[in-house]
Amino acid sequence: MAESFSSPGIDLPSPTLLARLGELAVFLAAPTAGRLTEEQRALSLGIARRLVAAVADELDPGIDGDALWRDWLAAGVPAAERLTTVCFARAEEHRWREYSAQRVTTPIPLEGVEEEAPVASDIPSDIDRAYLALQIADRRRFDSYGNPCVAPADVDTGLFRALLLDIAAWRLARVAKDGKLAADLGEAVRAATEGRDAGAGIDRAAKAYHDLLAGQGKLADAATAAITRHDWVTVIALSAVAARRPYVDTALALLSAEAAVLPFLLAPLKLDRAALAPLEASLALLPGRAVSGGAGDE
Amino acid sequence: MSERIIHGRIDRSGALVSADAPLLRLQQRAGAGIGKPLALPHLARLVALAQRLQRDISRPLYAADDHSDIHALVRVLPDEEGANLEISDWRASAVTVPQMPPVAETAVRPRSWSWECDQQLRVVALREGRDAPPIPEDWEACSLSELFELQPDEEGGFPVLRALARQSSFEGQRVRADGSGDARVAMVLTGEPLFDATGRFTGFRGTAIVEEATQSEPNHVPNGGALVDPAFGSLPLSDPQFGRRIDGALRGPLSRIIATAETISGQFDGPIRADYARYAGDIAHAGRHLLGLVDDLADLQNIERPGFKAAADEIDLGDLARRAVGLLGMKAEEKGIRIDAPRTDDKMPATGEFRRVLQVLLNLLGNAIRYSPENSQIWIRVDREGDRAKITVADQGQGISSEQQAVVFEKFERLGRTDSGGSGLGLYIARRLARAMDGDLAVESAPGQGARFTLSLPARDVD
Fold first, then answer.
1. Residues of chain B with C-beta less than 8 angstroms from the C-beta of A142
2. Based on the structure, what is the number of domains in chain B?
3. pTM
4. In chain A, what are the domain boundaries?
């Protein structure tokens, strides 16, 4: 679209105008597709900002994260395309969990059905500890104010390195040419990249939990229980490992899936069709979901 | 843990011809019944749609009666004669549970930490706010009471323990936590309970705010001033009221859990599914274990109190050994274990507190039964060596290596055993009791050759 704009004067079109035209072009290409809601936009932006600040902090705690983000917002976020999926997936997952939690009700026991009580264990089992580690990895995906974020440990190495380099470039440009600083920043990028324990976050915790369950033949039961409890983090984590996909991809796949596709997505967990009902219901009730054919299936 | 499905059947004319109880109740409250047209407009529309399209459809279902709002997921399966209904995820009484409180409620505030723990009070999140003391390292998965040394309130209670029993929110729980350096920082905890979609309590989430300094209670207190047990962290075991409080708070609920679980497990109120009965049996077993742990903790609190002294009763170790065998004989028989106890004329007069010595012997004999192979033998012998009266319990179990013997009397030492057999406090308590009676408890063993535990007490001369 930008190419079709002919400026009457010598000025180049502003980034704002280009963005508007781009938005219109996207709309015209798919007029019936649902649009990003304000809530989705705000959540995704906030997550991106916190991720950039966290990576900047790993590069150099002295970097002014607010100034960095202001500059990037004005000029455009360098790694925008690579950030999009990870931030949108985290935002949608957060939205799902929030809406799901708001709908949580106290169940009334049905007549003639015995209430199942959790069985206490005397000593934490390996599975119990792995589940605890998964919870801890998940809670690291919130900042100190309880806002959702993406932990640097959960970002793939390519994006992490791209962000480091972009932030280093911004820092260099801000303090003008300084040979020593450039060398220091280069060294910091190298150290941050090499010292990073890739995949140390939720993917590793998910794999540990999944493998222990699978080893004891308890995978389907645990996944079914997680669906019943609306423990969506565990559901995503187990299905991600079972399907050998990253957590973030699986979250996005589930959140954008038609109801009919869910059994296929979760097929590696070998669940009863009936066990998927609460999952289907919860997703169906999430407004503004990016399913094919519209912004939500209800 | 399978999802409960409520079934119903609609005929070609749209009348409800059969329904499980919840669906039928809803139909009746809407003024209809069996054989009458479906009186739930939303559901009726879905049925008509499925019949028109002649394909299965699944949709969220909203319905309401004069009691509650109903949220569920319905699957309509049309056929030639009508349609089948499968309703799942049935939830009533829309009560919002504070699973995800608004950010403002749980967000970390200046000079505070925000925290979250699971239902076993293990910390899963800890974050520091602006100007707050740095959070301790290695907080992950440690217990809330390890992280925060709980302080009793003015009534001598612990708000967090009360809230745990009631699964309710709490505030004003005064604690001390590690600050920078060696200093301890005084904080106040507040917390909200968390529940999952099945209504199960899943933990607490809250804040820990630095307590403002007062003249009488400075923020920072020296580490040495706290009543901290090295094994229990913040549990104030030296507080004489602690045992009574934990006893009262836990024993009643646990006893009720065990009694109910045993009733279910025994199917006294009629048959239930075998796996449910097994679960109930597991609950009863776990409950009994917890009750034992409460006993052990109460004992521990008691014997670790400065100045603890056992009574000096005139006892006969032979008699006590036979009493212990009488109490645990059935348990041994279940494993085909034979106990060779002192004969009735085998007497060994000694000085010690009758019930405490019996407690030690029950612990030793219980361990011997637990760790002996089936169809083996246990020996109990009494004899005297100088001014010491001795009783020895020997088994044919796998034995204990010399490294393990060095730690077997430590708190929570279970020699790598991961079964559900005990709290790891029994032998520690037994030795403390023996020493409180001017005696001792020792072990001799070698791998593969069983273990011999010997309790020695002051011998008593009888004319």
1. 125, 127
2. 4
3. 0.52
4. 38-104+124-159+199-284
